[in-house]
Structure formats: structure tokens, C-alpha cells
Structure to design on (295 residues):
């Protein structure tokens, strides 16, 4: 008699909707962050395909000079991946260069999207719709300096983004000012693929929650540092101990997930095309009357 195979319950509950449906999910951000009704969403066609093609073409030709604000600290830490626009995770605690890059990025990003749609307006529409109409803002520093709304991340062939968790960042010196304006209980991560590799490059989320302490990795067989958490070594351990799920959205689709609580990574890319995304983070204000998003 054949053995009955019992299907394993999905580790995470992700909603999969089209952007035209988002107003039906007017409490989605509250449900994810506070009620924990689900862990993530894939929102299809947030950026139209023809808009993405034009944006990628401009990036490849360096129209507008976006490559002039390449984040060298990020590239050094991750050993291959890089961002256009400085990512706050690796910036100096004083934030001055970060603010300088952020102001330039916002200008160049407007040029990059010119003739398609306004990126910040699009993000604010999506986040406002998913939070019951709350105000959506890019944070400002104590002197009125602007944070960066997103960064463009490029992951070359055979590269990965190592296992990490978002809430760990909220304890860092770079987030001292953010802690005065956002609810540090949790943050969400978001990204939109602009280019996908032939294979690999999936978002992998593990069933391990951040507990307020830095997770130590065994780096005895690799170089020390942030980029040393090699996928082939660490994924097997994490998947065996905690379980995992993989997600691979399409070009122009927005992934919004609880990257603050759950450890996650990007699997190694395969093929000649680099993986390219635009994205960042978001949290509620301390009073829960607004949404802040940044990168």
C-alpha cells in the first residue's frame, strides 16, 4: 500500500495581489507589523514593464550620471554587490556623506524615471493605500537634510547577499536619529526587480526571528566580516534548523515583507545577467500616524 505523503504547511503567509487591488488591503501594513496576520506581500506590476525597460536602458548608458553615486562602502562589505546611492547600513554614524548622496540620488532618480512615472509618488501611493491613507514620508534629519527613499542594488553573476536581519540595524549608531521618529518595534523591507538573472537571485526567508541579539556566524573557513556568511555553508544550516521559503517576483513587481523580524538573504545569481533591484525599508512613526521609508 503506498505511503501517504502529508503536505508541509507553508512557513510564511504571503499575499499575492495585483497593484490594481491594493485599496482592498487598506490595513495591510498594520496587519503585518502589529497584528502579524501575514509576513509579506507580492504586489504585481507596481512599475509597468515598459517603464522598467526604459529605466534599465538609461542605467546601462549611465544617462544622468547615476554611477557617480556608487556606494563604495557597500561594495567593499558585500564583496561584489553594489548600490547606487549610499545605503544607510554601512554609512558613517554622522550621516553627512549619506545626506549628501541622498540629495543627489533624489535628483538623479527623478531624471531616471522621467517620462514614465515619479518613483516617490508611486511608492507613496502604494504605501498610503496599504495603511488606510496615512501620510507617507521620506525622513528628514535634524537640520532638514533628506534621507534617501531607496537605493538601486546590483548583484553580479555568481554573487549573493548574505544572511541578515533588518531590526539589527535599528540598534546601530547610524539609526540614532531614526530611533527618535520611528517605532523601532519592527521594520519592513521592500524591493522591485528591474533586471532578473537567468537563474538564482531568489529572496530566501528563514523561520528564525531576531531576538535583539546579534547572531554569530562561524567564519572559520572564510574571511571575517559581513560578507563572510557564505550562502552554500550557512543556508544548509539555517534551512535545516529553521526552515525556509524562497520568493522570486517578476520584473516590476514589489515585494514587501517582514525583513525586520526574519533572517533572510538573496541566493547566488546564475547566468550572464546581473540582478538589479530598487528598494529600501519602512516603519511607522512613533505615533503610528505616518509611514517613513528610506534606504
Amino acid at each position: 500500500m503506498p505511503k501517504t505523503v502529508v503536505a508541509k504547511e507553508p512557513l510564511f503567509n504571503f499575499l499575492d495581489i495585483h497593484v490594481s487591488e491594493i485599496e482592498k488591503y487598506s490595513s495591510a501594513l498594520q496587519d503585518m507589523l502589529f497584528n502579524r496576520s501575514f509576513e509579506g506581500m507580492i504586489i504585481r506590476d507596481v512599475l509597468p514593464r515598459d517603464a522598467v525597460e526604459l529605466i534599465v536602458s538609461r542605467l546601462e548608458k549611465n544617462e544622468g550620471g547615476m554611477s557617480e553615486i556608487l556606494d563604495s562602502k557597500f561594495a567593499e562589505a558585500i564583496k561584489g554587490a553594489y548600490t547606487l546611492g549610499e545605503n544607510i547600513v554601512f554609512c558613517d554614524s554622522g550621516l553627512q556623506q549619506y545626506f549628501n548622496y541622498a540629495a543627489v540620488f533624489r535628483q538623479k532618480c527623478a531624471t531616471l524615471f522621467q517620462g514614465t512615472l515619479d518613483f516617490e509618488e508611486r511608492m507613496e501611493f502604494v504605501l498610503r493605500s496599504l495603511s488606510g491613507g496615512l501620510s507617507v514620508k521620506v525622513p528628514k534629519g535634524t537640520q532638514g537634510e533628506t534621507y534617501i527613499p531607496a537605493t538601486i542594488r546590483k548583484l553580479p553573476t555568481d554573487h549573493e547577499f548574505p544572511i541578515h536581519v533588518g531590526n539589527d540595524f535599528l540598534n546601530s549608531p547610524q539609526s540614532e536619529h531614526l530611533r527618535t521618529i520611528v517605532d523601532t518595534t519592527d521594520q519592513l523591507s521592500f524591493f522591485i526587480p528591474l533586471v532578473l538573472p537567468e537563474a538564482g537571485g531568489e529572496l530566501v526567508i528563514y523561520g528564525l526571528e531576531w531576538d535583539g541579539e546579534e547572531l554569530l556566524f562561524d567564519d572559520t573557513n572564510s574571511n571575517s566580516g559581513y560578507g563572510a556568511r557564505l550562502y552554500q555553508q550557512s543556508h544548509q544550516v539555517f534551512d535545516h534548523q529553521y526552515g525556509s521559503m524562497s520568493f522570486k517576483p517578476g520584473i516590476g513587481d514589489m515585494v514587501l515583507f517582514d525583513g525586520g523580524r526574519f533572517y533572510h538573504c538573496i541566493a547566488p545569481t546564475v547566468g550572464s545577467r546581473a540582478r538589479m533591484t530598487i528598494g529600501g525599508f519602512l516603519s511607522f512613526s512613533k505615533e503610528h500616524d505616518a509611514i517613513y521609508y528610506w534606504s
The radius of gyration is 19 Å. Helices lie at 28-35, 49-60, 72-78, 96-112, 119-129, 231-242. Residues 29 and 186 are 11 Å apart (CA to CA).
